[in-house]
Amino acid sequence: MLAAGLVLMSLSSNPATAPVVPIADSPPRFDISASCRDVGKSGINVGRPASACQADEERARAALTARWGEFQPSARTACVEGATFGGPPSYVEVLTCLEMKKP
Fold it and tell me: Using one digit for the tens of pLDDT, what is the confidence trace for 2-11?
């Protein structure tokens, strides 16, 4: 066990062999039709229409594109990764996450 720890330490101290952490250099590209597909489908038909969802997603995508450089690379990576867990990704979710992480 100690040997494995020493090997890991030696690998992490060499920049050429350090683990690579992906950084989102540009805003992600999501399929918003998948994100909005089931919006508005509820048992009592009270949900908002898919067109409203798509409009929100397009506005959030435009805002992300315009403001991408304002956010820390680590926050961009974390928020994009988080938006892809548990269902179709959402620009609104990424933008909200980034705004919450902004100092």
Answer: 444 433 444 4
